[in-house]
Structures are given as structure tokens and as C-alpha cells.
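#struct-pred
JK: can someone run the complex with retinal? inputs below
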Amino acid sequence: MEQILELSNAQFQTVYNTLSLALAAMAATTIFLLAATPRVLPRYRLALIVSAMVCFIAAYHYWRIFDSFSSSYIAVGAGQPGVQEVFELVKGDGFNEGYRYVDWLLTVPLLLFETIAVLALPAAVRRSLLWKLIPASALMIILGYPGEITADLTAKAVWGTLSTIPFLYILYVLFVELSRAAKTQPTQVGKELAGLRWLLLATWGVYPISYALPMLGIDGADSFVYRQIGYSLADVLAKCLYGLLIFKIARIKSMDDDPAFAEQEVKEAPSSK
Ligand code: RET
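RT: done, C-alpha cells with the ligand placed:
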């Protein structure tokens, strides 16, 4: 893995704070989603629980990533007149980028699962979609990993291209096949689902771009910092914001399925007191 030997103070602080922000967002969303399960019908709770699991797994990995990052660099030159403070890589294991891939290997299939679960589709349709999406997502992450940890740009391009094949297949299944299956959904859900898919496309697209920065001529410490920001912010949107949208869909569907539940939920709102 290409290790960055030196970061400026600003670069170190930027990565440090971004990782910290992601950790806080993941932990808070986990609590929110678990606490929100009674606000949807039991048939939609699995989707919320899986979404909370995704955020929990990510919170754990961000804690490990944060820990790995903050112990990999040491401040030198602080307080010495005329010397700029910088952060140098401590000799040893270095910063472990592998945690991200372990995280994605677990969370990406779960994210796809929660997307399908919230739609409460007929069992046969659900099974067929999951059989396509889950193996493809695992393949995408596994093929991307060797390219992430190499400093050789040709190898990076080859693995990146291989990983893009299952990535495009997932988009095809979500945009073409899922659209067909989702025709039976209430109109409001159809709209939310369209939003969900666009969020997915916009955030998932950030990962290959962040990965490809060294091939686009941005290298060294800058590439490292942009990649950490790209991956972290995309993770917050793809897991936390996505989870909140799943909650919204589950709630709309709950109200739509059961008027008595809708009535009770509305009565609880302070505005109707
Ligand atoms: C890699 C390697 C280069 C090619 C492609 C990639 C795609 C990664 C994606 C990751 C999504 C992660 C998510 C995590 C949130 O839980 C592996 C960077 C296409 C799409 C959604």
C-alpha cells in the first residue's frame, strides 16, 4: 500500500476531523434507526434494523480507521522557531486502508438487502433480485481491493476496470429490473424510490472517482486527503442519509397499508392536540 510519509498540519487535521465526523454520524444514525422501528409496521422493521446494522458496522470501522490514522502520524517540529509543524508517518504498520474494504464487504450487500426489503415485494421477485445484487456487490469490492493497495498505476487500472463490471451490472439491475418490479408500489413510494436510486447513483459514483484520483494525475498527499474525504462523505450519505430515506419509505408504506396505524400516528402529532 502506498503510504504517505508526510502530511501538512492542515492535511492531517482535515482527515482527522472528517473521520471523526463520519464516526459520529454513523453512531447517531444507528441509535435513531433502532429507536424509530415502532414508527413503522412490523413488516418494514427488518429494513430499518438492517440499516441500523450497516451504520453500526461502519461506526465500528470508523473507530478503527480513526485510531489507525491518529496513531500512524506524529507531529514534528511543533513549537520550534522557524520550523513548520508537519505530521510524519510513524515507522510500523502504517495507516490501514483495509478496514474500508472489510466494511464495504459487509455493508454493501446489506444496503442492497435493505433496499429490497423495504419494498415488501413478492418473495420470488425479492429472491431473484437479491441473487443478482449480492454476489455482484461482493465481487465489486473484492476486485477493487488489490487495486486500492497497489502503488502501480497499471495494476490499479486493471483491477479498477474489473471491479467496474459488477458495479455497472448492479446499476443495471437497480435501474432496469427493479423499476419493473416497483411498478406495483403506491405513487408516493414510487417517487421516494426514484430519489433513493438517484442518491445511490450519486454517492456510489464517488467511490470509483476517489479511487481513480492517482490515475487522473492527482497524487501524493493531496490524492490521499481527497480520497479520505471522498470515501468518508460518500459513506455518510450512502449509509446514514440512505437509511433515513429507507425509514421515510417504510413510514409512507406503513400508513398506506394500514389506515388505523396512520390514524394513530397522526393523532400522536402535537399539531393535532
Ligand atoms: C471500487 C474500485 C474501483 C471501481 C469501483 C469501486 C466501487 C466501489 C463502490 C463502493 C460502494 C461502497 C458503499 C459503501 C457504503 O456502505 C471498489 C472503489 C466501481 C461502489 C456504498
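RT: quick notes.
The chain has one domain: 6-268.
The mean pLDDT is 92.
JK: thanks, will look after standup
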